[in-house]
Every structure is written in structure tokens, then in C-alpha cells.
Amino acid sequence: MATRQIIQTDQAPQAIGTYSQAVRVGDTVYLSGQIPLDPASGTLVEGDIEREISRVFDNLKAVAEAAGGSLNDVVKLNIFLTDLSHFAIVNQIMARYFTEPYPARAALGVAALPRAARVEMDGVMVL
Hints:
This protein is of the alpha+beta class. The protein has one domain (about 5-125): CATH 3.30.1330.40. It contains 2 helices and 6 strands. It has helices spanning about 50-65, 85-95, and strands at about 5, 20-25, 30-35, 75-80, 105-110, 120-125. The two termini are about 20 Å apart.
């Protein structure tokens, strides 16, 4: 069995539960869910949904880089929204962080997220 390497960075929020920011096994990195927490303060960012979505992408980017990759190495992205009317905004902001070919993706409407966040994302990258 391949060795698991725990990925951790101060450039993304610390885990708020019993999980790691990411785990690498071989060339595959599993990115834990990120909500719009500011890494310095540990609090949710304030403002509009665009700011929250951007913070989530910034958090994922920081963890991806700590693992030795980038968001362009993401092959699967899962997006959880408490309001699916924000889906178009996610697409607009995602285009600033990713280039083609884009990862496979799912977007799910959910009733609630940790800390009353409105968006959470996780993913899988291959290095």
C-alpha cells in the first residue's frame, strides 16, 4: 500500500475537525472541503457571495500548492452551495482560477454547511 502524506499549510485555514487539509497517496492528492474562512483569523470572510467563493478558491489553491501542484492539477472538483442561484457566479469566478482543460465537476445544493457558510468545495488532484 502506498504511503499517505499529510499536507498542511498556514496559507489555508486550519482544520476545524478531525481531518487533514489534504492527503497525498502516490500521485493523487485528496483536498478536503474548504469554506470561506480567512486563514489568518479563522473567521468567515464578510461581504458578498463573490468574495466568499474567491476565498474558497484561494484556500484550495494554497493547499494544492502546499502539495506541490496547482489548481490546474485538479481532476475532480465538488461544489456545495446552500443556494444554487449562485451557480453562475461560481462559473464566472472559477474561470479566473482554472484554465482548460477544466476538471470534472459536480455542483450540489445542500441545506447547510459548517459555520453557516454558503459555499464549500473539495477536490482531487493528480500530480
